[in-house]
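Hey, resending since the last one bounced:
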Amino acid sequence: MKKQSNLSRLMGYAGGHRILTYLSWVLSVMSALLALVPFWYIWRIIHDILEVSPNFSQAGNVTSYGWSAVLFAVISIVVYIAALMCSHMSAFRVAANIRKELMRHITALPLGVTEKYGSGKLRRIVNTSSTATETYLAHRLPDKAGAIATPIGLLFLLLAFDWRLGLLSLVPVELGFLIMMKMTGKDMEKRMEQYQNALADMSNEAVEYVRGVPVVKTFGQTIFSFKRFK
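The structure tokens again:
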């Protein structure tokens, strides 16, 4: 049986709203490409001015190019807002369904499981983890789609301006990807896992301590009862 990817599992909680997630990717790519169009018009303005220099009055299309650049910039922003609206609607549905499913599962577990992990840790899993999926689906995935489309579109623009400049620009792009792969490798994955586990333990201890404050006061405990946070 083929193992489902994390994204496929999340989309299972989206139900009929999953189409909005895919639509947000398409709109984000469109927004990224539309945002590059003003640069082409700016290049046309510079090109026309340099061609008629020093008779700048002969550059008659400068105004229309300028307004076209502004128009495409505004359209790009509107399309990006539409992409975020679609992604947020789907992400909120996923987060809500995950919380419902988790609470349904927790209520069916024996009490010993709750005692083993602690109510604070379980609370963090339900709230924080479901919120993290909302951030991932609503922001990171659309932005990732736009981030992939932007350098591709920019490369085509550079090749249209000057193919030699376009080929030369590939060098820093490749270096950037190599550095990014180094920063987000297996070592970073292990560190993030340790970080998340530490946060879970701290949340669990904090909730358990606050809930036990009446008992602590009753038995006259001191500030040294905080030593569990060390």
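The domain at 6-183 is CATH 1.20.1560.10 (ABC transporter transmembrane region fold).

Sorry for the duplicate.
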